[in-house]
Amino acid sequence: MQISISFLISTLIASLEAQKYMINCFYGSWASKTLKPQLLPQGINPNLCTHITYAFFELTGSGRVNRHEHEYATLAAFSKLKSNKGKPKLIAAIGGPSVKAEQFTAIAADEEARTQLVTSVAMLLRDYSFDGADLHWYFPGRRFHNEDKENFVTLLRDLKAELNENGFISGVTVSGEVEYAARWYNVSQISPNVDFINVMAYNYTSSIFPVFHAPLFGETSHVEASMNFWIAHGAPAGKLNLGVALIGRSFKIKILKPELRTTTSGPLEKTTMAPVKETTMAPVKKTTLAPNVTTTPFPRFNTFTQMCIRGKNKSAHYHYIPRVETAFMIEGNVLTGFENDQSLGAKMGFVKKHSLGGVMIWSLENEDFLGRCGLKFRILRLINTLLK
Ligand SMILES: *[C@@H]1O[C@H](CO)[C@@H](O)[C@H](O)[C@H]1NC(C)=O
Ligand SMILES: *[C@@H]1O[C@H](CO)[C@@H](O)[C@H](O)[C@H]1NC(C)=O
Ligand SMILES: *[C@@H]1O[C@H](CO)[C@@H](O)[C@H](O)[C@H]1NC(C)=O
Ligand SMILES: *[C@@H]1O[C@H](CO)[C@@H](O)[C@H](O)[C@H]1NC(C)=O
């Protein structure tokens, strides 16, 4: 009796806690090697993600998945993140920045290489208890091979056929840049040939003023435009994951609007990224995001933890622009855009409003995984709560 009651209660709790949105957390395997402090798979809290994606598996010229001996231990530890109830689901990201666009062009165009790719991906998934794969071709058409557009679809079709047949899911990760997507992604053909689509709605570089890397709204590249592109072209909203990057992106500012210097927003309170108050900053004009800000062209990237630690410095000032739902920090002449509670609240609201599939989180090693600024994985906890 005792057992069945506690079983009932735990089942009830489990069902109450069930997350209906996909929370697809990426794990950069370099976090187990070169990153300091390192993040091993054992250090990941698997309860905060419905899916965890291992990035990246590169490919040989003939299309086979590369396996490195030095990664076997990490992979074995990674596969243990899955409970005996099969949660979270584990995904293998295939491709990434180290696989040249030319290489994908050649593989996608060649039937034999495509077959080699899909069979070796299926074998990889079986060997390490993965539940699916996610194709990262950065990016079709990069070298203006017109045939990439169609071959991309063919490759996705072959991959999904092979993986679904073997009980695996098959997804894709795509650029968030709308102009690029309009030229190179055939949405109506891609959508039925994948189980999910991660849209990298961050790290925008095509803006005239690349100051904020992932504003939800605005005149330049922004998250709403990226997601709406896929929805408007017929992708089922339930397959779309909104990409959220837990990075701060910094630019040196040459000319700063006087309002930004004289704002009254103080340094970060306490030690967390707790809600940042709206600033008394003068309203941003409608036509441009930052008319009087010029930045150096090469951005610097910061992990969330670095941001949070630097935020304790009295000379760091936080700002929030509700109109574009973006947070940023000013330190001297450095401006860093980042996600805070408020911007994430707005983005998760967007996910719910449009009944998207969920979110893609880039990435676990950018989180505060040691709890140096408060709760461990505080941002992921927040995202889980916001998506309830
Ligand atoms: C997508 O592909 C289909 C089939 O090849 C084609 O008819 C259609 O015009 C393509 N659409 C775009 C936007 O490229
Ligand atoms: C952002 O884009 C730059 C190139 O502009 C690239 O080097 C970097 O890896 C990207 N970062 C993420 C998190 O995608
Ligand atoms: C920046 O704005 C100030 C006043 O807001 C103006 O005096 C100055 O000329 C502007 N600088 C540039 C480069 O537009
Ligand atoms: C605080 O910020 C100032 C100005 O940006 C910088 O010079 C100083 O080194 C920072 N202090 C710490 C402890 O990071």
**Could you give a short account of the major beta sheet?**
8 strands, parallel, barrel
Which kinds of small molecule does this entry bind, naming each only once? 2-acetamido-2-deoxy-beta-D-glucopyranose
Which class of secondary structure composition applies to the elements?
alpha/beta
Gross morphology is globular
Number of helical stretches of at least 4 residues: 12
What would the CATH topology of the largest domain be? TIM Barrel
Overall helicity? 25-40%
Pfam family, one: Glyco_hydro_18
GO molecular function: chitin binding; chitinase activity
GO cellular component, one term: extracellular region
Keywords: Signal
Walkthrough of the structure:
With 388 residues, this protein is an alpha/beta fold. The chain folds into 2 domains: 22-246 and 338-387, Glycosidases (TIM Barrel, Alpha-Beta Barrel), CATH 3.20.20.80; 251-331, no CATH class. The chain contains 12 helices and 14 strands. It has helices at residues 2-17, 72-79, 101-109, 111-127, 148-165, 178-184, 187-190, 223-232, 258-261, 304-310, 341-353, 378-386, and strands at residues 22-28, 51-57, 89-95, 132-136, 169-175, 196-200, 240-245, 247-255, 294-295, 300-303, 316-321, 326-331, 334-338, 358-362. Strands 1-2-3-4-5-6-7-14 form an 8-stranded parallel beta barrel, surrounded by 5 helices. Strand 6 (196-200), helix 8 (223-232) and strand 7 form a beta-alpha-beta unit. Helix 3 (101-109) packs across helix 4, helix 4 runs parallel beside helix 5 and helix 11 runs parallel beside helix 12. The longest helix is centred in the middle third of the chain and has 18 residues, at 148-165. The chain is globular. It starts with a helix and ends with a helix. Residues 258-292 have low confidence and may be disordered. Bound molecules: 2-acetamido-2-deoxy-beta-D-glucopyranose (4 copies). The site of one 2-acetamido-2-deoxy-beta-D-glucopyranose has 3 residues, from helix 7. This is GH18 domain-containing protein. Keywords: Signal. It comes from Stomoxys calcitrans. Pfam families: Glyco_hydro_18. Residues 1-18 form the signal peptide.
